Amino acid sequence: MAIDDTRLVTPAAMGAIDAAAARGGIDSFTLMQAAGAHVAAVVLAHYPDALRVVVVCGPGNNGGDGHVAARLLMQSGVAVARFGAPPKPGGDAARAFTECPGSLAPLEDWQPRAGDVVIDALFGAGLDRAVGDDVAAVIARAEATGTPVVAVDLPSGLSGRTGAPTGPCFRAEHTVTFAARKPGHLLMPGRALCGRLHLCDIGIPARLIASDDRLWRNHPGLYSDHLPVADAAAHKYTHGHLAVFSGPLISSGAARLAAVAGLRAGAGLVTVASPPNAVLTQASHFTAIMQRALGGADALADWLGDRRLSAFVLGPGFGDADKARAFTRQLADTGRPVVLDADGITAHAACRDALGAAFGGAVRLALTPHEGEFARLFPDLAKDPALSKVDRARAAAAMLNAVVVYKGADTVIAAPDGRSAINADAPAWLATAGSGDVLAGILGGLLAQAMPVFEAACAAVAMHGLAARRAGIGMTAEDLAGQVRPPDHSAADAGRT
């Protein structure tokens, strides 16, 4: 059975998995042998011309993996030098150290040579503090000389829980990890510091690779069972009616991007509700998307009497904070799903608790903040250095009884019940003005089709990245919206594990 590369486990959970494997009779030294063999294989495959492999070893099991890799590389005819601290007597690492021929020099003795490749087997994922001065000096020498680094489990100095460096940190070209990915492999800047990731099966049974973390890499298995299904008897209203609220004339483009994306995501109808002075401008851009002139709260109350309206997007280019808050309260009272983005999020910075209270009960609110918007709405969470991006998103979701799509190169999707996903495959060129408006529209379009909010958010983030890959480097947000497609069931099924 292929290894499940979708589940993420924290370093603490991985320790519990290792302990469960040992209790189940799996020999821990056999696991170490397999881990070291994978490390050696990666070095041989990617650095066949290395003149010397330098293995820097810590005193724990990560160092034990390094000793195994060193022995196997020597047996393959590779010149190997080991530097570091000897392990404590009696454990697996001590056995691996004893079985590896040659000496172990002090860490500070390593001086880079041309043709060196470093295997970083110092600490791995378990370290959540800054490395010492001796390790920092080694990191600095490797960085200064451009010496390639292959990290065992995680580059030393990088938190496997948060993906943030705890101080000086190796920048690896390759990282070899075992059994399951850790959050630090996907969260930025950890993903960049890991280089190419190799997830390897070392013999831990799949039934043990589980935890209470409820954290995954975003993948089709999270949402494919809930994707809208085409029905020959369907009509436009069975595919949902999405309402997108526009801002004033000067900032109406953001709503247009969201509306186009919602329609392309499969909503049967999309209406843009605009201030009266923006209607003609919007009409000049739309054909398939409908228009509604909408003034204040009374006009909105009349429109909300139409039960065919199935989901709402408020915030892109909206502008008026007082009006955004008032409209949001009215939308909350309908019991239908709402996406708050951009100005819809910022408008509630001073009344966050009231927003959460308005959306009690079944989860029907989604927020799509970027880093700055998140900090405005959740300054207490944003300022806490002990929290990972996953921790912050989960806490925010619980506070507001909402699904939070915390955007970025490592977008985190979190539900109030703790389910979370990290998206790691969106292209870099998504970082362009208007991209977030498109995402809000895709999510609104899926919610209009009655997808549950967490599953819709995971699907929307995946669709957003796929549209960007179709659009290509140099795309604009208009290009991006034009490349949105309804979810493909066959592709989703193929990606399930």
Considering DSSP H and I runs of 4 or more, what fraction of the residues is helical? 25-40%
Any idea of the CATH topology of the largest domain? UDP-N-acetylmuramoyl-L-alanine:D-glutamate ligase
Total discrete domains? 2
Radius of gyration using CA atoms only: 26 Å
N-C termini distance: 10 Å
Low-confidence sequence ranges: 490-497
Q: Helix count, per DSSP?
A: 20
Q: Which band does the percent of strand residues land in?
A: 5-15%
Given helix and strand content, the structural type is alpha/beta
Q: How would you describe the shape? A: elongated
The CATH homology group name of the largest domain: Ribokinase
CATH class of the largest domain: Alpha Beta
Q: Number of DSSP strands? A: 17
Q: What is the correct CATH architecture of the largest domain?
A: 3-Layer(aba) Sandwich
Q: Which sequence of strands runs across the widest sheet? A: 8-17-16-15-14-13-12-9-10-11
Largest sheet: 10 strands, mixed
Give average pLDDT, whole number. Answer: 94
EC number: 4.2.1.136, 5.1.99.6
Family: In the C-terminal section; belongs to the NnrD/CARKD family.
Binding site for AMP: 407-411, 436
Keywords: ATP-binding, Isomerase, Lyase, Metal-binding, Multifunctional enzyme, NAD, NADP, Nucleotide-binding, Potassium
Describe this structure as you would to a colleague:
It is a single chain. The N and C termini lie close together (10 Å). The strands form 2 sheets. The protein has a 10-stranded mixed β-sheet with strand order 8-17-16-15-14-13-12-9-10-11, sandwiched between helices. It has a 7-stranded parallel β-sheet with strand order 3-2-1-4-5-6-7, with helices on one face. The model is unreliable at 490-497 (pLDDT under 50). It has 20 helices and 17 strands. It has helices at 11-23, 28-46, 61-75, 92-99, 133-145, 183-186, 190-194, 253-264, 279-283, 297-304, 321-334, 343-346, 352-358, 371-377, 379-382, 389-400, 435-448, 453-471, 477-482, 489-494; strands at 52-57, 80-84, 104-105, 116-121, 149-152, 174-178, 196-200, 215-217, 241-245, 269-274, 290-293, 309-314, 338-340, 365-367, 403-406, 412-414, 420-422. It folds into 2 domains: 11-211, 3-Layer(aba) Sandwich (Rossmann fold), CATH 3.40.50.10260; 220-489, Ribokinase (UDP-N-acetylmuramoyl-L-alanine:D-glutamate ligase), CATH 3.40.1190. Helix 2 (28-46) crosses helix 4, helix 8 (253-264) crosses helix 17 and helix 17 (435-448) crosses helix 18. Helices cover 39% and strands 15% of the residues. A hairpin with a 5-residue loop joins strand 15 (403-406) and strand 16. With 497 residues, the protein is of the alpha/beta class.
